[in-house]
Fold these 3 entries.
Entry 1:
Amino acid sequence: MKEMSLFLTLFILAATPSICKGQPKKTCKVVPKNEYIEVGSDTEIVCQTSCIPGKIYWTLNKRRIDESQSSNSSHAVLSLRNFTLQNATLQCLNADTLQALGGTIIRTYSKPSNISCILHHKNQFKDSSPDLFTCNWEHRIKPSPDINYTVFASLSHESQQEICESHVTNCTTTSERISLFDNITITVRAKAAAWEAESDPREFCPDHILKIIRPKLTVKTLSDHVLVSVSARSRAAFLTQCHCEVKYSKVVDEGPVSEWVHNNTLKKGHVNETIEEFDSCSNYTFSVRCALVEAPWSDWSEKETVLTKLNKRDFKLRLWRKVAEPEENRARKVHAMWTEIPSTCRGTFTYTVKQTPYKEHVMGVNDTDTLCGSSTCAVYVNQDAHRIQLTVLHNGALLVVDSVYVPAVGESLPQVTDIQTSTLEGDILVSWKASIEPVTGYMIHWTHGGNLYHWKESNYTHTTLSGLLDKQPYNITVTPLFDDKTGQSTEALQICSRVGDPGNVMIHVQSKDKSALVSWNVTSQGACSGAVVAYTVFYRIQKGPQLNVTVNGTEQFISLKDLIPDTQYSVHVNATALTGTTQSRETLFKTKRFDPELITVVSVCGSIVILLVLSLGLCCAVQWKKFKEKPVPNPGLSSLALWPASSHQEGTCPFQPFSNPSESLCDRVYTGETQQAPTSPLAPGCDGNSASVQTEEYIDPATFSVPEDSVEPAETWHPSSPDDSTALLPSENSPYRSQTSAESSASRSSKQCKRVPVKQTEKITPVIVYVTLDMLEQHQGRGGK
């Protein structure tokens, strides 16, 4: 911005002659140019306005200011009072045309201030006269190599003399020119290329600026306190009054470090400080610093770390117990617990617990002692009331004794009610209603998993449990306390120290062409995972906008609609609980090109049609093959009839070649083979001609005999029309296909035949005739002719 303002000013100044062109004697400009003034001082800026008529106005950093002058005279003056800006751009403008007539930049500088000086020692272990002199000051302008600082010193009734130079706001030199007995006056001068400023002089007393060397520290630990000894190394501390600060802090692995400071006054260069506020068997660091009155503090001494001893006076066991439910033998397990003595405490510690029935304890009867560990112990008692007593020995000497009451089973004792629990930033807040009887306090104990117990005492009906494991369930019990007894315990509902995020989300996608079924399940991360209140499904195509749909926490699937076929999508699911959100891994899936259900339906229908066509073709092929390859009938299975004797009634055919007497000879089937290959004459036909059929001769003397002299007149068959021959072909009229009634055969024979007398001169040989299936085809072909 500074460069821009300067460029704008130069541009305006360069353009000013063009405004006044043709009037060389009437110019417009602003003076002085690029002025440096001290912060808080006054200055005046002049704008020559002889080149224009009318009024002008001023701007400061492009903001119009109220002060303006008329152009009645040849110039306008702007007065700046108590100017404090670091830099400013001023412009003079025509009020009518708003044209800039000229401008300038004003920069401010300040003089050094707040000077402080000290006399100090280079060697912090050896006492001697101070050999270094250092001064510091402040300057509102940012120090740079362009500014040179010079420090001047003058003693009483002496002129100033230069003692050091610097380009920063401090300067150190030897103290050869400094007297330890006279006051000294210091002045700092700051000089740049365009300006120079000198600070106000400041006078110092040597005793007020003398920084003594750091003292020596000795720390000794005792059983009930820590003794800190401070010794001064500077002779000045022995000559004048001196005060010291002792700082100590406990060494901890994690968390903030608490520091304590004790003040004391050195007497004859020595002082002892007693510290009683400390934790037993803990590491503490100590350091000390001292100073003359009104003089600056010395450097801190080297830190010394010590291990404190066990403080018998302040050590408390805080003995407590957890009573389990009675077992089958009615014995109760009592889990005794107390404050563990730090392992850093040196020496040998012995812990013994004895359980005494309460009545015998009152009477002074002791029970057997049980040797226990360092912080817990388990003993068994019956259903009666008992008192558990813990004794701790340190190096064989009694350190502390404490006891706690165990009520009897079913003993009527007060107890708290309506325990309420809640969580806040990892802590558990517990509150309850007080018991009816007055109490001395309440004992609260809590556990995670039942292995490690924590407990604390409170005088109020509420407390805060801190230092808990994160996202873990806790069981909390509250017990009222009395003077020498304890009431009945009341357990609260299990509560988590903090409810975490929902469990891990695993998703599965089944895609179609325009939709996809997204399902998921949540695997809990622990007992304190947050309950899901909503699921949000996010999906998108590559380089496309992200879409989402939300369902409630009871749903675990959703169908995404209106998707683009044959397109790759990415999807993930967010499970949201009141305590946070868990996101599944991103899954890629691709929609189908066609609807899988349509393809399935078409495939099934096509398969059925193909099967039907194949089945029909196969059936036709089988039937055709059977038709083409039909075997010759077995004559033994045919129904045959004897030919009638000569005494047969008139009106029937002269012979019956089949076993059924009702069948007529006229019912025989004629084929083409019978005409082409005639055999021996069998009998004259109905028309007087011999009928030729393809036959095989077979004689059965047991079933057939004819008298030698019998003569039977033959009957001749006359078809009434060409259609009559084909009418005889149906299977129901063929003796080889089925047998018909005698009446129908006789009536047909009487209508189609007439008797023709035939002369029989020789024996009639019985003939057995059968027909093949080919005869039907040939006869049908003949009938067609």
Entry 2:
Amino acid sequence: MCLGAGYALVTPAAEATVVPGEGPAPKSLPAPRQSTPDALAAALAPGDPATTAEAKADATLLPPQEATTDAIARKAARTAAGSEAAAECNVGDFTSKTGAALVEQIKASETACVNTLFSVTGGDARALFQESQMVTVADAYRDTASAYQGDNSSSITQIVLYLRAGYYVQYGDPDGVGEYGPALKTAVQGGLDAFFDSSRAYDVTEANGETLSESVILIDSAMENARYLDVVKKLLTGYDSSYDEFYWMVNAVNSTYTVVFRGNWVPELIDAVAGDPSLLTVLHDFAAGHKDLIGTDKQFLTTNAGRELGRFLQHDELREAVRPLAGELLDTTSLDDPATAALWVGVAEMTDVYDKENCDFFGTCDLQERVRAAVLPVEHTCADTLEIVAQKLTAEELEQSCASMLGQDEFFHGVARDNGPVADDRNTKLEVVAFDSSLDYQTYAGVIFGIDTNNGGMYLEGDPAQEGNLPRFIAYRAEWAEDFEIWNLNHEYTHYLDGRFNMYGDFEENMRTPTVMWVEGFAEYVSYSYRDLPNEDAIAEAANKTYPLSTLFDTTYENTDTTRTYQWGYLAVRYLIQSHPDDVATLLGHYRTGDWEAARTLLTSTIGNRYDADFAGWLGRCSAGDCGTAAAQ
């Protein structure tokens, strides 16, 4: 069954499951600063649900225990530490300068400031990143790298970030920024050559790791994947346990998989590997030699090696060389062995996508069915409308989960005041899939359900008008929680109820106009209010008064971030339900009939900015502890 569209709560994870798919070969897409190497493949995989309308990913916060091992959380910590610099960062300070003055401005800025340049648009983008500016900065990278001391004392990291930002912005708007040609190619090669030839480039230290990791990603940003395969091989063969105490050194090693992954769409790299297949052996040997990382927070290093080896099966000229190496990894691992299952699944998935006709050779025929049967043996019916499929839940845990969701029905209908399912909605039953941990989710959910797993769970609505369609929420036990909890259970269950009783059509239909404020804000509102929990993050955020209500009406998955999506979505929906219930009733009337333009007119014209001042006042009271009565039924 085609699962169709859906929603995901993205929480940064130690490992990303890549969901490969068929589609046009992408132009080199430099990763934005917030994309971490372990998440990158999932974020950029062509045809991946994370990048298509098949399933839309948004972001929420990680539990504290996981955040300590995640690049996004670390980036947030760095940003918080440099928040004053970021707040004072003025794009005009960069656009007004050229030549040496521009280089000095970059070096004098904090990394948090340079990081903001990934989001510039329009005339600022051209002023910042036109080729002449990029050549100047690439030449500065070369000059600075030639005397590199193994740390950021020369502000080289800011220079690399600026170049990465330029490639990223130019990719998104080549006409606005202008084309990049031979001059920049030569200049960037000079910078990369100087850095990787420097005597301190491979120092195993945290001080070196960040610049090294960013420079490895720059290889891909500049589409120099083939030229620097020796860098990839050196980092993979050089890795040992001494790297593990340095977060950024681990990141640097993992960044090599970005170069390899994206290299599948760089013909020069495929030609280079065909001429010298030693990269294939390096990938195989890394995966085979580091099975001890499976089950740890470094597991992604091993599984990514296996995946990237297997991904080369898509190329006719490489298949004969890859096949025995992938087969050997599968022969020495097992789906039934927790100590090696993650590697087996990763390689098996690549063979299933790129060499399926040889599944007998690999022992991977009927892969999805085999993995599901082995990993999800528990089946429990809560009601005619709800069932749970799980990895290890006890009878008590199953009953608790059922009771939590079924009890939410009455609360939801009391708030939504609906008259039953919307027209043409046949999603009469929901399947909740619960893996035993976030790591199990990352290991198995991708191959079974074809989803990205660098998140905190995913709701797949499918086509609600199709008879027999089965919507599905895929989740996991929150292993860090003191008490049993399926992570995001009530938020995602609200998505199911909201889609069935409030939003006409499927996910793609729901997104025809900006509805994210409602979709995510309402899910947060119901989840917290039903459980009678304070949304402490949102209440703290209210004090900042960052957004007028009228601005939140325009939230889309493309223009938002974690805070705007969840905390501000919650605040906006709670305010409207409590202060303007008649407007909410009118809005939902439009949503239920699929009259998106009428709903849009209500928000942007009828309401417009009329409530902005009152909303600001309410935010002040809420941040002081008086948010009103949440459960407005």
Entry 3:
Amino acid sequence: MADADPLRPDSPAQTVPHYRGVRHYVSGAHARWRKMPLPLRILLWIIGIIFALWLILFITKGRFLKHPFERFLTHRLERPVKVGGDFQLYFDPITLKFRAEKMAIANTPWASRREFFRADLIDSRIAPLSLLFGDKYKVRWLELRNAATDLEWNRDGKSNTWTFGDPNKKGKPLNLPLIRRALLAGATLRYRDPRMHLATDIGFETVKAHDTRFANDVRFSGTGTMRERPFILRGGLLSPDETVTGGRNSLALHAEAGATVLEVSGTLPGATEIEGADLRLAAHGPNLALLFDFLGVAIPETRSYRLTSALTKQGGEWRFTHLKGRFGDSDLAGRLTVSLPNDRLLMRADLSTRTLDILDVGPFIGYDPQKLERQGANGAISTVNGAPRILPDAPLRVEALRNFDARLTYNVRRVRAEHVPISNIGLTLALERSLLTMSPLTFDMSGGHVSSDIAIDARGHPVRSRYDIRLSPTPMGKLLARWGVEESGTSGTIKARVQMAGVGDTLHDSLSTSNGRIAVILPAGSMWTRNIQLSELDIGTFVTKMFSGKLKKPVQINCGLIAFTVRNGVAAADPIIIDTEKNVLLGRGGFSFRDESLDLAFRADGKKFSLFSGQSPVGLDGTFARPHIDVISPQLIARGGVGAALGIAASPLAGMLAFVDIGDAKSAACGPVLAGATAAAQRTRGGKSRDDVGHGTTAKEEAGKGVARENKDEKKKFMGTGVK
């Protein structure tokens, strides 16, 4: 059409082309676009490009990306990646859909299998932002058919098959993607860890769930071996129906290794999402150490146990809370956490026991728990070369100690034992890089208090152990009540200290190579006994007690020291001296941690003239497990024979001369005694060196040269023709 100019009637009408209006519109749009802020224009361009890419990918299903995907992943993982069938990669509509058929990822060169992963079909829905942000990929849906995964550590434990890149790169812990729901058919998982001696093969299948709240049930089962012991496991994971908002996966797991049974039940946020799980653990078996073997962790052996605990994972920690149960005849409660700071296993525990049965202590220090279960206290005794032994010889699991660190506090209210008056045990244990310390280890005993610091250094070979055990002043009446000491009338106390160091992987080996000192100090006090073995050993009171069964008044002790110097596992008396009101008790000999033999002799010399004081020694021999006391020694019998002969030949008065003690015993200076000094430092009350406590030979002797021989020779000299 043509329009006339209304302001100029004489002007002819002109024709306006149609495209002029379009051009005007485009020009206006372009002007408006240029007027927009630059950041906004950039943003719109980005959105437009993304939409175009989304549209292209949606229409083509991203199949053209198959070969670029293979090349990119091969370069990124430094392993060949191949997709043999259909390939799809696109947004649908927001989540990233990935589908691949006949996909395979090659394994690292040192692995025992050619392929790390293969599957006939992978179909998944992935949250795209999780690929860019966060440390875990989030998979909304995963379908795997005939898939096989190989998880394996190398022999030195430095590399694994799931840490991609350089095959010599340090292996990282397994970090599974967060999978909300899954459908598996013919999927298998293979795991190998030579360091833990662990091998397992697990199969997965998905079946339709019977509960309408759940879409499907992923069933799994498998077999394996752990430290040469076979185990089986089975269970199921119920995934919630997608119509259930906020649904949680329900887990049930049952595992058996011989008589050890482990059951886990509860809920998970996602199929592989453990963080925030709400689980319950129940375990029972013959030995708790067997259960911890699955973590590659060495704990003391125990008798049969049954435990329950709440279980969850928070902030990289596995938390076992509200733990309670029993081991043997003892109860246990507390909490335990397991974590991996700096890729090293760390266990922290705070445990308590109300009543600890004495038999349940045995496995902690190396006694066979099954033997204790069958034989009770007699299970602590073994036979070596025909002789009974009581020191445990179970080896410390040095290699297992190198796998983890630990922090433990353990408290025991009381110990159930007929003749062991122990209560209020407190233990603080730390294991760091194979250095195990129990500092302090404390407990109350018969009104006294024992405090210990023990260190076991397994960082080198052989293992080196240090012991420092201290007994605070303890009432003698309570401590020795089971041996016949009357608490009423006994005011004496005992204090002691043991300081030794040795090498060896067992308690027996450590003590049998040890060097150090043992000292028991008796300050001034009284002792009243109904047991003849604890008399002053004056023959007069001995005869009186033999017929009346009891002292008429307490023995008054001025001071006493029972001390041993230990060299190469052999302890020599250094010295044994107890100064009483009437007598001086002396002892010589020693004992050996090597063969657990005892070879001691004791004699009481009167300070005043006394009839019926035969100065006859008492011998203590045998072994730790079966000690033997010779109260009426051959020497006493010989003296009695002489007395009988004199009585017949002369008169009854002459017969008494055989039992006369002229009363020449030298009172002890109590200063060196109470200081726990060696024999060389002991003095009489007059300040002279004592010549009746070994002349200090034990202290001067070189370590390992004839200690046992000297002990035996000195005992023979001390006892004459006495105890063998």
